[in-house]
Write a structure and sequence with these properties.
Keywords: Coiled coil. It contains five helices and no strands. The chain is mainly alpha-helical.
Length: about 160
């Protein structure tokens, strides 16, 4: 007996979550690239200051000050991004719980009792195969869900996970 795909809705919700998380990841990559560029610029300014005359040093220090303020902004944006990521995870915990509950209930469509009456010996192998398929399908969706559930901040918000 082949078991149909049980976690259809769960996979859709995971795809939706991943798309939103991917947008945050992309934004983080852009901010990190900006951070690296500014750090390289700051290093170049510090090296230039060593051999610069007074007026050049004044100009370079002004540039460094501007870069420092940009660095503060980028670091602030990275903190905001981490908050957005946490908010996203917290928002998806109840969604994941609900969709898993719904998808797991679809396993009730399989009338194992009738199978036992008709095929007593085959029952053990069929149930074992079904269990393996259930488990295989669950393990295919579980890592993304556990990534959210295992987050320390999520556990604070939902301690019974």
């Amino acid at each position: 007996m082949e078991v149909k795909d049980l976690f259809v809705e769960t996979k859709q919700v995971i795809a939706e979550y991943k798309a939103k998380a991917e947008n945050l990841d992309q934004e983080e990559q852009e901010l990190q690239a900006e951070l690296v560029a500014m750090q390289e610029e700051m290093t170049a300014i510090l090296l230039d200051q060593e051999n610069a005359n007074l007026s050049e040093r004044i100009y370079l220090k002004a540039q460094a000050k501007g870069i420092n303020s940009k660095l503060e902004i980028v670091n602030s944006m990275l903190e905001e991004l981490n908050e957005k990521r946490l908010t996203l995870k917290l928002a998806y915990v109840p969604v994941f719980q609900e969709v898993l509950r719904k998808d797991r209930s679809s396993a009730n469509e399989y009338d194992v009792t009738e199978l036992a009456i008709r095929h007593r010996y085959e029952l053990l192998t069929e149930v074992a195969d079904m269990g393996k398929q259930f488990q295989k399908q669950y393990h295919a969706v579980a890592p993304e869900i556990y990534e959210v559930f295992e987050d320390a901040k999520v556990k604070e918000e939902y301690p019974r996970l």
